[in-house]
Amino acid sequence: MMKKLLYVLAAALTISVASHAQTYRFDFGSAEAAEGFQAVTSAMTYDAERGYGFEPSSAPVDVVRKKGTDLTKDFVTSTSPILFSVKLPEGNYKVTLTLGDTQGTSCTTVKSEVRRLMKESLSTGKGEVMTVTFGVNVRTPELSKGNEIKLNSRELDYGTGIVKTYTWDDKLTLQFYDSAPAVCAVEIEPAGEDVVTVFVIGDSTVTDQQGGGAWGQYLPRWFDSNVIVANHAESGMTIKGFRFGRRWDKIMESAKPGDYLLIQLGTNDEKSRGHDPMWDADDHAGDWVRTHSDPEKDYVWGLATMALEAKRHGMIPVIVSPMTKIDRRTATATELMTPYGKNARRGAELGECAFVDLWGMSRDIITALGKDALAVYADGTHTDNYGAYLFSLGIVQAIKDLGLGLSQHILPDTPAFDAKNPKPLLKDFTCPIEPRRTARRPAATSSNGQTEFGPL
Protein backbone atom coordinates (compact mmCIF):
# COMPACT_ATOMS: atom_id res chain seq x y z
CA MET A 1 0.00 0.00 0.00
CA MET A 2 2.80 2.40 0.94
CA LYS A 3 4.68 1.65 -2.29
CA LYS A 4 1.54 2.36 -4.30
CA LEU A 5 1.05 5.67 -2.49
CA LEU A 6 4.65 6.66 -3.18
CA TYR A 7 4.20 5.78 -6.84
CA VAL A 8 1.10 8.00 -7.08
CA LEU A 9 2.93 10.89 -5.40
CA ALA A 10 5.91 10.47 -7.74
CA ALA A 11 3.62 10.47 -10.76
CA ALA A 12 1.88 13.62 -9.55
CA LEU A 13 5.24 15.33 -9.08
CA THR A 14 6.31 14.30 -12.58
CA ILE A 15 3.18 15.82 -14.09
CA SER A 16 3.66 18.97 -12.02
CA VAL A 17 7.29 19.43 -13.00
CA ALA A 18 6.66 18.79 -16.68
CA SER A 19 3.47 20.68 -17.27
CA HIS A 20 2.98 23.75 -15.11
CA ALA A 21 4.67 27.10 -14.68
CA GLN A 22 5.28 26.80 -10.96
CA THR A 23 8.23 26.93 -8.61
CA TYR A 24 10.60 23.94 -8.76
CA ARG A 25 12.90 23.17 -5.84
CA PHE A 26 15.69 20.61 -6.07
CA ASP A 27 17.98 19.58 -3.22
CA PHE A 28 21.20 18.06 -4.60
CA GLY A 29 23.04 15.24 -2.85
CA SER A 30 22.34 11.89 -1.23
CA ALA A 31 21.23 13.08 2.22
CA GLU A 32 17.59 13.57 3.12
CA ALA A 33 16.05 16.44 1.16
CA ALA A 34 15.05 19.67 2.86
CA GLU A 35 11.33 20.18 3.41
CA GLY A 36 9.59 21.34 0.24
CA PHE A 37 12.48 20.22 -2.00
CA GLN A 38 12.78 17.28 -4.36
CA ALA A 39 15.84 15.12 -3.70
CA VAL A 40 18.23 14.80 -6.66
CA THR A 41 21.12 12.37 -6.34
CA SER A 42 24.06 12.02 -8.70
CA ALA A 43 22.56 8.80 -10.07
CA MET A 44 19.47 10.55 -11.49
CA THR A 45 20.10 10.88 -15.21
CA TYR A 46 17.64 13.10 -17.09
CA ASP A 47 14.37 11.31 -17.84
CA ALA A 48 11.71 12.99 -19.98
CA GLU A 49 8.84 11.37 -18.06
CA ARG A 50 10.24 12.42 -14.70
CA GLY A 51 11.05 15.84 -16.13
CA TYR A 52 14.47 16.49 -14.59
CA GLY A 53 17.91 15.01 -14.02
CA PHE A 54 21.56 15.18 -15.01
CA GLU A 55 22.50 15.00 -18.68
CA PRO A 56 24.26 11.73 -19.66
CA SER A 57 27.54 13.56 -20.33
CA SER A 58 27.74 14.61 -16.67
CA ALA A 59 29.54 12.75 -13.92
CA PRO A 60 28.39 14.38 -10.66
CA VAL A 61 29.49 13.08 -7.28
CA ASP A 62 27.42 13.28 -4.10
CA VAL A 63 29.09 14.79 -1.04
CA VAL A 64 27.56 14.70 2.46
CA ARG A 65 28.90 16.77 5.37
CA LYS A 66 28.17 16.52 9.09
CA LYS A 67 27.55 20.25 9.40
CA GLY A 68 24.78 22.35 7.89
CA THR A 69 21.04 22.28 7.38
CA ASP A 70 19.11 19.69 5.40
CA LEU A 71 19.61 21.94 2.37
CA THR A 72 23.29 22.78 2.77
CA LYS A 73 24.96 19.73 4.33
CA ASP A 74 25.05 17.85 1.03
CA PHE A 75 25.85 18.86 -2.54
CA VAL A 76 27.10 17.57 -5.87
CA THR A 77 30.50 18.30 -7.36
CA SER A 78 32.65 17.07 -10.24
CA THR A 79 35.98 17.56 -11.98
CA SER A 80 34.09 17.92 -15.28
CA PRO A 81 31.07 20.07 -16.20
CA ILE A 82 27.78 19.10 -14.54
CA LEU A 83 24.71 19.56 -16.72
CA PHE A 84 21.31 19.50 -14.99
CA SER A 85 18.09 19.80 -16.99
CA VAL A 86 14.47 20.52 -16.08
CA LYS A 87 11.53 20.19 -18.45
CA LEU A 88 9.84 23.59 -18.57
CA PRO A 89 7.24 25.44 -20.62
CA GLU A 90 8.55 28.25 -22.81
CA GLY A 91 9.09 31.49 -20.94
CA ASN A 92 11.35 33.54 -18.67
CA TYR A 93 12.47 32.13 -15.33
CA LYS A 94 14.43 33.19 -12.29
CA VAL A 95 16.91 30.65 -11.00
CA THR A 96 18.22 30.73 -7.43
CA LEU A 97 21.23 28.60 -6.56
CA THR A 98 22.54 27.58 -3.16
CA LEU A 99 26.29 27.03 -3.46
CA GLY A 100 29.06 26.12 -1.03
CA ASP A 101 30.62 23.52 1.23
CA THR A 102 29.91 23.64 4.97
CA GLN A 103 33.29 22.04 5.69
CA GLY A 104 35.39 23.32 2.80
CA THR A 105 35.80 25.96 0.12
CA SER A 106 34.13 26.09 -3.29
CA CYS A 107 34.29 27.88 -6.63
CA THR A 108 31.50 27.54 -9.19
CA THR A 109 30.92 29.06 -12.63
CA VAL A 110 27.39 28.78 -14.00
CA LYS A 111 26.16 28.67 -17.59
CA SER A 112 22.75 27.97 -19.08
CA GLU A 113 21.48 26.33 -22.25
CA VAL A 114 24.31 26.46 -24.85
CA ARG A 115 27.05 27.90 -22.63
CA ARG A 116 25.46 31.28 -21.82
CA LEU A 117 27.59 32.73 -19.04
CA MET A 118 25.37 33.50 -16.07
CA LYS A 119 27.76 33.65 -13.10
CA GLU A 120 31.55 33.70 -13.09
CA SER A 121 33.79 32.07 -10.44
CA LEU A 122 31.49 32.32 -7.42
CA SER A 123 33.77 31.52 -4.49
CA THR A 124 32.87 30.64 -0.91
CA GLY A 125 35.27 30.48 2.00
CA LYS A 126 35.63 27.45 4.23
CA GLY A 127 32.26 26.52 5.68
CA GLU A 128 30.43 29.28 3.82
CA VAL A 129 27.27 28.96 1.72
CA MET A 130 25.85 31.55 -0.66
CA THR A 131 22.71 32.07 -2.74
CA VAL A 132 22.60 33.80 -6.13
CA THR A 133 19.73 34.54 -8.51
CA PHE A 134 19.72 35.16 -12.26
CA GLY A 135 17.20 35.18 -15.10
CA VAL A 136 17.05 32.73 -18.01
CA ASN A 137 14.97 32.37 -21.17
CA VAL A 138 13.55 29.04 -22.33
CA ARG A 139 12.05 28.72 -25.80
CA THR A 140 10.89 26.24 -28.42
CA PRO A 141 10.53 26.61 -32.22
CA GLU A 142 6.72 26.78 -32.07
CA LEU A 143 4.84 29.83 -33.31
CA SER A 144 1.15 30.64 -32.95
CA LYS A 145 -1.44 28.87 -35.09
CA GLY A 146 0.64 25.71 -35.36
CA ASN A 147 3.56 27.25 -37.23
CA GLU A 148 7.22 27.10 -36.26
CA ILE A 149 10.52 28.66 -37.19
CA LYS A 150 12.83 26.97 -39.68
CA LEU A 151 15.72 25.36 -37.81
CA ASN A 152 19.02 24.66 -39.58
CA SER A 153 21.12 21.49 -39.57
CA ARG A 154 23.04 22.62 -36.49
CA GLU A 155 19.79 22.87 -34.58
CA LEU A 156 17.67 20.01 -35.96
CA ASP A 157 18.31 16.44 -37.08
CA TYR A 158 16.42 16.43 -40.36
CA GLY A 159 16.26 12.63 -40.42
CA THR A 160 14.64 12.14 -37.03
CA GLY A 161 13.06 15.56 -36.49
CA ILE A 162 14.78 15.76 -33.08
CA VAL A 163 16.07 19.14 -31.88
CA LYS A 164 19.86 18.87 -31.41
CA THR A 165 20.54 21.96 -29.33
CA TYR A 166 19.63 23.01 -25.78
CA THR A 167 18.58 26.37 -27.25
CA TRP A 168 15.35 25.06 -28.79
CA ASP A 169 14.46 21.97 -26.76
CA ASP A 170 11.70 21.72 -24.15
CA LYS A 171 13.88 22.10 -21.07
CA LEU A 172 16.23 24.39 -19.21
CA THR A 173 19.80 23.10 -18.96
CA LEU A 174 22.17 24.52 -16.34
CA GLN A 175 25.91 23.88 -16.36
CA PHE A 176 28.18 23.99 -13.30
CA TYR A 177 31.96 23.77 -13.37
CA ASP A 178 35.16 25.42 -12.10
CA SER A 179 37.97 24.49 -9.72
CA ALA A 180 35.64 23.21 -6.95
CA PRO A 181 31.94 23.41 -7.84
CA ALA A 182 29.53 22.73 -4.97
CA VAL A 183 25.83 22.87 -5.84
CA CYS A 184 23.49 22.36 -2.89
CA ALA A 185 20.17 23.39 -4.42
CA VAL A 186 18.44 24.80 -7.49
CA GLU A 187 15.15 26.72 -7.36
CA ILE A 188 13.31 27.79 -10.51
CA GLU A 189 10.27 30.06 -10.69
CA PRO A 190 8.47 32.05 -13.41
CA ALA A 191 10.08 35.46 -13.75
CA GLY A 192 6.90 37.51 -14.01
CA GLU A 193 5.97 40.31 -16.37
CA ASP A 194 8.08 42.97 -14.65
CA VAL A 195 11.40 41.65 -15.97
CA VAL A 196 13.00 43.19 -19.05
CA THR A 197 13.89 40.81 -21.87
CA VAL A 198 16.83 41.72 -24.09
CA PHE A 199 16.32 39.96 -27.42
CA VAL A 200 19.50 39.58 -29.47
CA ILE A 201 19.54 39.15 -33.26
CA GLY A 202 22.74 38.17 -35.02
CA ASP A 203 24.83 35.54 -36.78
CA SER A 204 27.68 33.20 -35.75
CA THR A 205 29.64 36.15 -34.33
CA VAL A 206 26.86 36.69 -31.77
CA THR A 207 25.19 33.30 -31.23
CA ASP A 208 25.56 30.85 -28.34
CA GLN A 209 28.57 28.92 -29.59
CA GLN A 210 29.18 25.27 -28.70
CA GLY A 211 32.92 25.97 -28.73
CA GLY A 212 34.74 29.28 -28.53
CA GLY A 213 32.52 32.21 -27.66
CA ALA A 214 30.46 35.15 -28.91
CA TRP A 215 29.43 38.32 -27.15
CA GLY A 216 25.73 37.40 -27.13
CA GLN A 217 26.32 34.40 -24.86
CA TYR A 218 28.54 36.40 -22.46
CA LEU A 219 26.07 39.29 -22.15
CA PRO A 220 23.93 37.80 -19.32
CA ARG A 221 26.99 37.86 -17.02
CA TRP A 222 26.72 41.62 -16.59
CA PHE A 223 23.02 42.07 -15.67
CA ASP A 224 20.97 41.47 -12.54
CA SER A 225 18.06 39.04 -12.37
CA ASN A 226 15.57 41.68 -13.55
CA VAL A 227 17.08 41.44 -17.06
CA ILE A 228 16.85 38.27 -19.11
CA VAL A 229 18.90 37.88 -22.30
CA ALA A 230 17.19 35.87 -25.06
CA ASN A 231 19.91 35.30 -27.64
CA HIS A 232 18.19 34.49 -30.96
CA ALA A 233 21.36 34.92 -33.01
CA GLU A 234 22.23 31.92 -35.17
CA SER A 235 25.03 30.89 -37.49
CA GLY A 236 24.57 31.89 -41.12
CA MET A 237 21.90 34.49 -40.39
CA THR A 238 21.35 37.59 -42.53
CA ILE A 239 18.72 40.32 -42.44
CA LYS A 240 16.66 38.52 -45.07
CA GLY A 241 17.38 35.05 -43.73
CA PHE A 242 16.19 36.02 -40.27
CA ARG A 243 12.82 36.86 -41.77
CA PHE A 244 12.68 33.94 -44.22
CA GLY A 245 13.20 31.50 -41.38
CA ARG A 246 10.43 33.18 -39.33
CA ARG A 247 12.85 33.94 -36.51
CA TRP A 248 11.68 37.54 -36.63
CA ASP A 249 8.10 36.32 -36.12
CA LYS A 250 9.22 34.39 -33.04
CA ILE A 251 10.62 37.53 -31.42
CA MET A 252 7.58 39.64 -32.28
CA GLU A 253 5.31 37.00 -30.72
CA SER A 254 7.46 36.75 -27.59
CA ALA A 255 8.30 40.40 -26.90
CA LYS A 256 6.33 42.89 -24.85
CA PRO A 257 6.49 46.69 -24.66
CA GLY A 258 9.62 47.84 -22.83
CA ASP A 259 11.76 44.93 -23.96
CA TYR A 260 15.02 45.61 -25.84
CA LEU A 261 16.21 44.38 -29.22
CA LEU A 262 19.94 44.31 -30.07
CA ILE A 263 20.54 43.81 -33.80
CA GLN A 264 23.96 42.87 -35.20
CA LEU A 265 23.96 41.53 -38.76
CA GLY A 266 26.20 42.00 -41.79
CA THR A 267 28.86 39.28 -41.57
CA ASN A 268 26.89 37.02 -43.92
CA ASP A 269 24.88 39.72 -45.72
CA GLU A 270 27.95 40.51 -47.82
CA LYS A 271 28.01 36.98 -49.30
CA SER A 272 26.44 36.63 -52.75
CA ARG A 273 27.91 33.36 -54.06
CA GLY A 274 27.81 29.80 -52.83
CA HIS A 275 25.62 28.10 -50.24
CA ASP A 276 25.21 28.40 -46.48
CA PRO A 277 26.63 25.17 -44.97
CA MET A 278 23.97 25.32 -42.25
CA TRP A 279 21.38 24.18 -44.85
CA ASP A 280 21.14 21.05 -46.97
CA ALA A 281 22.64 21.43 -50.45
CA ASP A 282 19.25 21.00 -52.14
CA ASP A 283 17.62 23.67 -49.95
CA HIS A 284 18.01 26.76 -52.10
CA ALA A 285 16.87 29.01 -49.27
CA GLY A 286 20.49 28.59 -48.22
CA ASP A 287 21.88 30.09 -51.42
CA TRP A 288 23.71 33.28 -50.43
CA VAL A 289 22.41 35.09 -53.51
CA ARG A 290 18.91 34.92 -51.99
CA THR A 291 19.93 36.57 -48.73
CA HIS A 292 22.64 38.98 -49.89
CA SER A 293 22.13 42.66 -49.04
CA ASP A 294 23.98 45.53 -50.69
CA PRO A 295 25.68 47.53 -47.90
CA GLU A 296 24.37 50.89 -49.09
CA LYS A 297 20.85 49.84 -50.05
CA ASP A 298 18.83 46.90 -48.73
CA TYR A 299 21.21 46.36 -45.80
CA VAL A 300 20.56 49.87 -44.52
CA TRP A 301 16.83 49.65 -45.18
CA GLY A 302 16.65 46.15 -43.68
CA LEU A 303 18.16 47.34 -40.40
CA ALA A 304 15.97 50.44 -40.32
CA THR A 305 12.84 48.40 -40.99
CA MET A 306 13.63 46.03 -38.13
CA ALA A 307 14.14 48.97 -35.78
CA LEU A 308 10.90 50.68 -36.84
CA GLU A 309 8.86 47.50 -36.53
CA ALA A 310 10.31 46.85 -33.09
CA LYS A 311 9.38 50.36 -31.99
CA ARG A 312 5.82 49.91 -33.23
CA HIS A 313 5.74 46.82 -31.04
CA GLY A 314 6.78 48.94 -28.05
CA MET A 315 10.34 47.62 -27.95
CA ILE A 316 13.57 49.62 -27.64
CA PRO A 317 15.83 48.71 -30.59
CA VAL A 318 19.61 49.13 -30.64
CA ILE A 319 21.54 48.56 -33.86
CA VAL A 320 25.06 47.17 -33.37
CA SER A 321 27.51 47.38 -36.26
CA PRO A 322 29.17 44.05 -37.20
CA MET A 323 32.60 43.45 -35.72
CA THR A 324 35.63 43.68 -37.95
CA LYS A 325 37.49 40.67 -39.27
CA ILE A 326 41.16 40.09 -38.48
CA ASP A 327 44.14 39.12 -40.60
CA ARG A 328 45.78 36.43 -38.50
CA ARG A 329 49.04 36.77 -40.37
CA THR A 330 49.55 40.34 -39.21
CA ALA A 331 47.17 40.63 -36.22
CA THR A 332 45.52 43.65 -37.84
CA ALA A 333 41.95 44.48 -38.77
CA THR A 334 40.90 43.86 -42.37
CA GLU A 335 38.64 46.07 -44.48
CA LEU A 336 36.25 43.25 -45.47
CA MET A 337 33.45 44.44 -43.17
CA THR A 338 34.06 48.18 -43.60
CA PRO A 339 31.07 48.86 -45.93
CA TYR A 340 28.69 47.13 -43.50
CA GLY A 341 30.37 48.44 -40.39
CA LYS A 342 29.97 52.04 -41.56
CA ASN A 343 26.49 51.71 -43.05
CA ALA A 344 25.00 50.12 -39.93
CA ARG A 345 25.05 53.64 -38.48
CA ARG A 346 22.89 54.83 -41.38
CA GLY A 347 20.41 52.08 -40.57
CA ALA A 348 20.18 53.34 -36.99
CA GLU A 349 19.69 56.92 -38.21
CA LEU A 350 16.87 55.91 -40.57
CA GLY A 351 15.33 53.72 -37.89
CA GLU A 352 15.73 56.53 -35.35
CA CYS A 353 17.20 54.25 -32.72
CA ALA A 354 20.31 53.87 -30.56
CA PHE A 355 23.54 52.74 -32.19
CA VAL A 356 26.58 50.83 -30.88
CA ASP A 357 29.70 50.95 -33.05
CA LEU A 358 31.10 47.48 -32.45
CA TRP A 359 32.90 47.65 -35.79
CA GLY A 360 34.94 50.63 -34.63
CA MET A 361 35.29 49.22 -31.13
CA SER A 362 36.66 45.89 -32.39
CA ARG A 363 39.22 47.69 -34.57
CA ASP A 364 40.37 49.73 -31.59
CA ILE A 365 40.72 46.57 -29.49
CA ILE A 366 42.82 44.84 -32.15
CA THR A 367 45.10 47.87 -32.47
CA ALA A 368 45.51 48.23 -28.71
CA LEU A 369 46.30 44.57 -28.04
CA GLY A 370 48.82 44.05 -30.83
CA LYS A 371 49.83 40.38 -31.14
CA ASP A 372 47.53 39.47 -28.25
CA ALA A 373 44.64 40.35 -30.58
CA LEU A 374 45.13 36.89 -32.09
CA ALA A 375 43.62 35.51 -28.87
CA VAL A 376 40.54 37.68 -29.36
CA TYR A 377 39.56 35.75 -32.49
CA ALA A 378 39.27 31.99 -33.02
CA ASP A 379 39.77 32.52 -36.76
CA GLY A 380 39.52 35.45 -39.14
CA THR A 381 35.87 36.12 -38.31
CA HIS A 382 34.71 34.60 -35.02
CA THR A 383 35.78 35.57 -31.52
CA ASP A 384 37.12 33.09 -29.03
CA ASN A 385 36.17 33.25 -25.35
CA TYR A 386 38.56 36.10 -24.56
CA GLY A 387 37.20 38.20 -27.41
CA ALA A 388 33.60 37.39 -26.52
CA TYR A 389 34.29 38.55 -22.97
CA LEU A 390 35.84 41.84 -24.14
CA PHE A 391 33.15 42.56 -26.72
CA SER A 392 30.35 41.87 -24.24
CA LEU A 393 31.94 44.38 -21.87
CA GLY A 394 32.12 46.85 -24.76
CA ILE A 395 28.41 46.39 -25.52
CA VAL A 396 27.51 46.91 -21.85
CA GLN A 397 29.69 50.04 -21.64
CA ALA A 398 27.94 51.42 -24.74
CA ILE A 399 24.53 50.75 -23.16
CA LYS A 400 25.69 52.72 -20.14
CA ASP A 401 27.11 55.57 -22.27
CA LEU A 402 23.87 55.80 -24.26
CA GLY A 403 21.95 56.31 -21.03
CA LEU A 404 19.51 53.51 -21.81
CA GLY A 405 17.20 52.45 -19.00
CA LEU A 406 18.75 49.00 -19.21
CA SER A 407 21.91 50.42 -17.63
CA GLN A 408 20.29 50.55 -14.19
CA HIS A 409 20.38 46.75 -14.15
CA ILE A 410 24.11 46.41 -14.83
CA LEU A 411 25.77 44.54 -11.97
CA PRO A 412 28.04 46.61 -9.70
CA ASP A 413 31.05 44.34 -10.33
CA THR A 414 30.98 45.16 -14.07
CA PRO A 415 34.22 47.02 -14.86
CA ALA A 416 34.32 50.15 -17.01
CA PHE A 417 35.56 49.40 -20.52
CA ASP A 418 37.69 51.40 -22.93
CA ALA A 419 38.24 49.82 -26.35
CA LYS A 420 41.49 51.76 -26.79
CA ASN A 421 42.79 50.40 -23.50
CA PRO A 422 40.90 47.10 -23.17
CA LYS A 423 40.88 45.25 -19.87
CA PRO A 424 41.36 42.56 -18.85
CA LEU A 425 44.56 42.03 -20.77
CA LEU A 426 45.10 38.51 -22.02
CA LYS A 427 47.50 37.72 -19.16
CA ASP A 428 44.81 38.80 -16.68
CA PHE A 429 41.89 36.96 -18.30
CA THR A 430 40.73 34.44 -15.69
CA CYS A 431 37.16 33.56 -16.68
CA PRO A 432 37.25 29.73 -16.55
CA ILE A 433 36.58 27.91 -19.81
CA GLU A 434 35.07 24.44 -19.59
CA PRO A 435 36.45 21.64 -21.78
CA ARG A 436 34.96 21.55 -25.28
CA ARG A 437 32.14 19.03 -25.64
CA THR A 438 31.97 19.28 -29.43
CA ALA A 439 34.62 19.68 -32.09
CA ARG A 440 34.88 22.53 -34.52
CA ARG A 441 33.60 21.85 -37.98
CA PRO A 442 36.18 21.12 -40.72
CA ALA A 443 38.28 24.05 -41.90
CA ALA A 444 36.94 26.15 -44.72
CA THR A 445 38.52 28.87 -46.84
CA SER A 446 37.19 32.39 -46.35
CA SER A 447 36.75 35.07 -48.96
CA ASN A 448 40.22 36.49 -48.17
CA GLY A 449 41.95 33.15 -48.60
CA GLN A 450 42.55 32.47 -44.91
CA THR A 451 41.65 29.23 -43.21
CA GLU A 452 38.71 29.54 -40.82
CA PHE A 453 36.69 27.39 -38.44
CA GLY A 454 32.99 28.18 -38.14
CA PRO A 455 30.27 28.96 -38.00
CA LEU A 456 29.55 26.58 -35.16
Strand numbers in spatial order across the main sheet: 2-1-14-7-10
Q: Rough shape?
A: globular
Q: Would you count the extended β strands for me?
A: 23
Helix content: 10-25%
The chain-level structural class is alpha+beta
Quaternary structure of the protein: single chain
Q: Span from first to last CA? A: 53 Å
Look at the structure and give the mean pLDDT.
89
Determine the number of helices (DSSP H or I, runs of at least 4 residues): 9
Characterize the biggest β-sheet: 5 strands, mixed
Strand content: 25-35%
* Integer-rounded radius of gyration: 22 Å
Unreliable stretches: 1-20, 437-456
Give a quick precis of the structure.
By secondary structure, the chain is an alpha+beta fold.
Structure, explained:
The protein has nine helices and 23 strands. Helix content is 21%, strand content 25%. It has helices spanning 2-19, 215-218, 239-244, 247-254, 288-291, 298-312, 338-351, 358-369, 385-401; strands at 24-28, 38-40, 52-54, 61-64, 74-77, 82-87, 91-100, 106-112, 116-124, 129-138, 156-157, 162-163, 171-180, 183-190, 196-201, 227-231, 260-263, 316-320, 326-327, 332-333, 354-356, 444-445, 451-452. With 456 residues, the protein is an alpha+beta fold. The strands form seven sheets. Strands 2-1-14-7-10 form a five-stranded mixed beta sheet, with no helix packed on it. Strands 3-6-13-8-9 form a five-stranded antiparallel beta sheet. The longest helix is centred in the first third of the chain and has 18 residues, at 2-19. The termini are far apart. Mean pLDDT is 89; it is low at 1-20 and 437-456. It is globular, with a radius of gyration of 22 Å.
